[in-house]
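Case study.
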Amino acid sequence: MIDLLSGYAIFSLSTVLVFVALATLLHLQFGLAGIVNFGVVGFWGLGMYAFGILLLNFQLPYFVALILAVAIVALVAFVLGWVVLDLDSQAQLVATLAFAAVIADLVTTEKWLTKGVVGLGTVPHPFGGAQSALWLLLILLVLTVGVIVYARLLGRSPFGRLLAAIRDNEVLARNLGKDTSRAKLIFFTLTSAGMGLFGALSAPVRQFLTPDLLGPGVTFSVWIALIVGGKRWPLGGLLGVLLTIFVFDFLIETYLRVPSDWAQIIPILKLMLYGVTLVLVLLFRPFGLLGDRRQPTSHL
Amino acid sequence: MSNNQITLKGVKKSYGGRVVSDIADLALGRHGVEGLIGPNGAGKTTLMSLITGKISADAGEILFFENGNRHDISGKKLDAVARLGLVRTNQRIQDFESLGILDSMLLSVVQPAQETVLGLFAETALRQQAHPAINRYLEAFRFSDPGGYALSAGEKKLLDIIRCLLLKPKFLLMDEPTVGLPQDQTDKVMEVVREAARDDGMSVVIIEHDLDLIWNVCEYIHFMADGRIMAQGTPDEVRTSTMVREKYMGEGDA
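After joint prediction, the assembly is written out as follows.
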């Protein structure tokens, strides 16, 4: 067996888990509630940098910094959501995309806080010792499974039904007395804070934080994975990430021995294959590989 | 007789200089089941949208009285008005594409306390609690596949009305309830609505072009034309009014 749990394998698996969690959170926002969030990397990156800054610049205790970082993301998501959630989906798309761009720019320009392109110092693992990276991987695994279980339970709960109703016909839901603005705002804040949590936990995975981590590629990868897997399903994000990011960033990069001339081509090839996969899925299975979700409550 | 009433004073709405609603003084709901009739374009649907807050008036005051409480609902949001117990059924077919018939009904019945981000296990209790009310409607109205989706236009229309009734409203506005419904279903809807009006004190205002239904069901009628209330009275009074005949039914008809 090839060094299955080499340092690099643990790093790649941790990254893959973070993407699974982000895609599942996007399933909740977009697939369930119909909120168009093209700023995934913004919430993720804000959590990551906020955590790193609180930990390194302000020397806060590890878990205090973690909780504060998530709280900051929640606050920002609340304000952004308050402004954009009642607008139409195009406006949501542009606003969230712009938000993510602003975060990336601020991280680059505010050198006094983030050290800009030089990079913030090294973020340590939550637990020390020889197995510290493995512990982090386990924490990510537990939390990611937690998000998927939450998504599954929520989809069958009264609040999940309300979100589906809002996605289908918001005016009709309001006609039935549903405070749809409030429901969307609470849910967007919660799920975006979740993205921030996985961002904060990505900081020790990445260890050395630089602004180029915050490019829109993260958002697009998450969207492609969710759409390929099936946006309406709690497992859609997992399936999509396994077929895209896992194959390239884990299997190929970790285990495939490629001639060094090819090494440059693989990332380009990856983007092309992502694109082709997305087009094929949209053409032949517009609701993703898992398909549309039409299973009504059939009895009480 | 019901204690629920809507009053409108000086309510105006115009689109680009065309006045679509100009209600000087109107009280709805004093007589249990009331009718709102008038020619196409008279502003009946606009009036309902103004009351429920779907659109906002340019001027005027709309008050809602229920069980002795007074609510100023001018400028209030659609969902806030609905939560006060003032609900409207839709003229055009409105549905939740991904919700089945039972899901749609459960959405109406659910209490806000059960409908929260962390209420992951509230579903079982909700279904038990909703069982009697939902079964009552499933027995009264035959859906071709009660465990599935509302398929035809008629079933969707019916579901829209049932969703509103499940909210147990204090005041129900019905915008052309018979359009798209077969006669026997219409009769049943009216039976259920009258029952709720009688037993629960629900006030009802019905917009309808099916005048037979209006004469049979309504105790009091408001006649509207050109955005104004032109005549009011009992069915007999309105039916015999020369002005109503000229403006709406055409001379020699009726």
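Observations recorded in class. DSSP finds twelve helices and no strands in chain A. Chain A has a mean pLDDT of 93. We will return to this complex in the next lecture.
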